[in-house]
Design goal:
25% strand
């Protein structure tokens, strides 16, 4: 999750239908803070993509589809890239379930196979998945990823020698809000994690400590503006939301090459940061 990012799938606000009145009208039901501003969101998404390209990543745009919702812009959640192909998630948020098949068919046309999928009654979202290394997967157990989904992930990955560890997530503000494991942890390099420490379970903190991670804590006044959602692009380079200035200064002080983009509309309004907006498909060693 921290090696140089070479190829990444995105779904622009246009592809997700933010410019379509019938879809935009669903913003309350989907948990957005306000009605989306399509022009502003599209501009901010374009800035994100320019930052990714500047860092050396190839951008691949998911095409529109009639059964995608506003949430499809957060392309990270519907699939998990592995060395064996994509694992299709089954999101706990029902309007997001069609996204996985769209990503699968599109990626297969690019030569990226589908390796496995999660079936009902399992639910999984990739925002709950953190690769601690190539053979260790930490999965948050919460309202978006359930015990059956985690069991299926273990069954899928055990034959490949991948250990799947469950990480309990807090209730937070309840099942209607988006709280992923990656809302509380962003790996920055092989030895550093950005954390929302008070919201993590003791066993998760102890696991990270046992693996030698040093911790950087977010500024907690920026929790609600997704300060913990930071994308590692490799080679000490990070991408973050510009609005989280206090946390960003901590990251710069820690020696990271931090780049930012405006996220008031594309990120904060829909509760998805730079990791959520990107489905990494290829990272180099």
């Amino acid at each position: 999750m921290v090696a140089p990012l070479k190829r990444v799938l995105v779904c622009s606000p246009r592809s997700a239908g933010w410019n379509q009145p019938d879809r935009a009208a669903q913003w309350r039901d989907l948990g957005f803070h306000r009605a989306p501003d399509f022009a502003k969101a599209e501009s901010q998404h374009e800035t994100l993509c320019r930052e990714l390209q500047t860092a050396g990543a190839e951008i691949i745009e998911l095409p529109p589809a009639p059964d995608l919702s506003l949430d499809a812009a957060y392309a990270h959640d519907a699939s998990l890239a592995t060395d064996f192909g994509l694992i299709l998630m089954r999101p706990g948020k029902k309007n997001r379930i069609p996204e996985a098949n769209h990503q699968s068919s599109f990626c297969e046309a690019l030569g990226i196979p589908t390796f496995a999928d999660i079936a009902a009654p399992g639910s999984t979202e990739a925002g709950d998945v953190v690769w601690l290394d190539a053979k260790t997967l930490l999965i948050g157990h919460g309202y978006r990823t359930n015990a059956e989904g985690i069991r299926q992930m273990r069954a899928i990955l055990a034959p490949k020698g991948v250990d799947v560890i469950s990480a309990p997530l807090p209730h937070g503000h309840g099942p209607e809000t988006c709280l992923h494991l990656m809302s509380l942890i962003s790996l920055l390099d092989e030895h550093t994690a950005l954390l929302d420490l008070p919201w993590l379970a003791v066993q998760t903190i102890e696991l990270l400590q046992s693996r030698g991670y040093r911790f950087i804590e977010i500024d907690y006044s920026e929790r609600d503006t997704l300060a913990c959602n930071v994308l590692a692009q490799g080679n000490n380079r990070l991408l973050a939301i510009e609005e989280n200035r206090k946390t960003n200064e901590k990251l710069r002080a820690a020696g990271f090459d931090l780049h930012t983009f405006p996220g008031s509309e594309i990120c904060i309004n829909g509760s998805g940061g730079p990791t959520c907006l990107t489905r990494p498909l290829l990272r180099s060693e």
